[in-house]
């Protein structure tokens, strides 16, 4: 009689999943900020040896990229992409809202120069389709300008009482300047920046 045994590879302890690793890193980032997230800290929280994490993430950069990408999961492009301006506005307002709710992500987005995971790719594809529909000749540059604007404006947010700009004011500034940026991008769709 042959019986099947479930053998686990290194780091695949019961209950340790990629989702658990990323969720724990996200929580630590919220609680302690970027410096509080290390492979050792995440492993300690999960009750495993640090090398157990390497079955789920390559290194700390991969872990941070996964945390950033997970933060983008709730951003939904409009289903009907008929109006490029409205679609881009929706995506960018949702992205900015995510950054306002999770300001601890801003320095990580800046340090990692954005996100590279499947959610980032999904949003990039949707933005590129909207930009192409609007006749923008270089959607990569336009997308980069929009993303940089959202991250850069979110970096202005401070939550201390002495902050010169309230979160509400920063949100209004973002929405107004997003309109200006979209006017420029969509009004001059053939313009490109040379390296």
UniProtKB/TrEMBL annotation:
It comes from Naumannella cuiyingiana. Keywords: DNA-binding, Transcription, Transcription regulation. PROSITE patterns: HTH_TETR_2. Pfam families: TetR_N (PF00440). The keyword Signal does not apply. GO terms for molecular function: DNA-binding transcription factor activity; transcription cis-regulatory region binding. Coiled coil: none annotated. The lineage of its organism: Bacteria, Bacillati, Actinomycetota, Actinomycetes, Propionibacteriales. Residues 15-75 form the HTH tetR-type domain. This is AcrR family transcriptional regulator. InterPro entries: Homeodomain-like_sf, HTH-type_TetR-like_transc_reg, HTH_TetR, Tet_transcr_reg_TetR-rel_C_sf. Residues 38-57 bind DNA. It comes from the Bacteria.
């Amino acid at each position: 009689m042959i019986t099947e045994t479930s053998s686990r590879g290194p780091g695949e302890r019961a209950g340790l999943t990629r989702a658990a690793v990323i969720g724990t890193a996200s929580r630590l980032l919220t609680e302690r900020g970027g410096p509080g997230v290390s492979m050792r800290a995440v492993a300690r929280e999960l009750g495993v040896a640090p090398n157990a994490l390497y079955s789920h993430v390559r290194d700390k950069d991969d872990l941070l990229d996964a945390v950033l990408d997970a933060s983008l999961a709730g951003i939904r492009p409009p289903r009907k992409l008929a109006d490029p301006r409205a679609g881009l506005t929706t995506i960018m307002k949702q992205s900015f809202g995510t950054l306002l709710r999770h300001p601890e992500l801003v320095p990580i987005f800046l340090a990692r120069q954005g996100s590279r995971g499947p959610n980032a790719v999904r949003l990039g594809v949707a933005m590129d389709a909207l930009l192409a529909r609007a006749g923008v000749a270089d959607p990569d540059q336009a997308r980069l300008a929009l993303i940089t604007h959202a991250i850069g404006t979110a970096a202005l947010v401070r939550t201390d009482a002495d902050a010169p700009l309230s979160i509400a004011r920063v949100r209004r500034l973002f929405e107004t300047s997003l309109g200006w940026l979209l006017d420029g991008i969509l009004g001059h769709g053939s313009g490109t920046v040379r390296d």
